[in-house]
Amino acid sequence: MPFTGEVANAFLTRNNYTWTEAKNNCTMIGQENFVNISNSIDRQFWIDARVTYSPWIEYLGCSRVTDEIVGTHQYVTSGQQIEECLHICTDYDFLGLQQGRCACLKGPPPNSGDSDPKCDSKGCEKDDNGLCVDTNDIGMYAVYSKPVFSRNDIRAGNCLSVVRNDLGGKGVNSYEAISCDQHLPLVCQKGKNSNNLHILEDNVYKWSESFLHCPSGTLARYSVVSNQTTELQTNTYYWLANIRRPSFHFYSDPEPEPKYCVSAKISRVVD
User: Fold this and answer.
1) Residue 225 within a domain
2) Is the pTM of this model over 0.90?
3) Are 97 and 124 within 8 A, CB to CB?
4) In the listed set 145, 171, 204, which residue is the last one of a domain according to the structure?
5) The domain containing residue 21 runs over which residues?
6) Helix (H) or strand (E) segment spanning residue 88
């Protein structure tokens, strides 16, 4: 795949390959926005990129944060609020997010787990699947805890769901990362720091909308659900309050079998 100027000249193969096979047999395109191709297509193709994920964090609700528990704060970039805040607060177990500012917290706010009725979390700017608070809401933050757990068997995806599988007649809960814009029913906690769970199955929502429909103001957290016997419908996915963020690495030389490989859809642009 020769590259000249801002437009790449792409040559498409007729055969299918694994990512590693493609990497070993040609120079793949990377993060080019436009490519020249010889025919009209609308298909997925491997590109020279891989993905790593941040640790899982749990959304605790929208809370007022007092100066006493703020360890440090810095400004963050629109669209990268969560990823940058995780990096800034490496040495802290809790973090708070406004649209443009990250606060590293020494501990959870007193009312974490029950969202403050005066606090309004909404989709982060350029990241609708994260939750932030407008910067003009002085002292109010969308609060997260981290790290929650580390598992290598959960496939690619940014938001965490729980599903009950019927294995040999015994219901077993498993956890899967999926796209945050899917519409799922909810598992909610009944109150502040409560281990009692409330299942909402009548309506389905995207992850970022879900906390608005839980009576306590937040979804149930993995750290609670994993220790409970929850009566879920078999083979139905439910949202939990856990999210993570991907980092894309272009033109890299990853290990022979990277865990997550990246494809891109190449479509013809009609003038």
Assistant:
1) yes
2) no
3) yes
4) 145
5) 3-52+247-267
6) helix 81-88
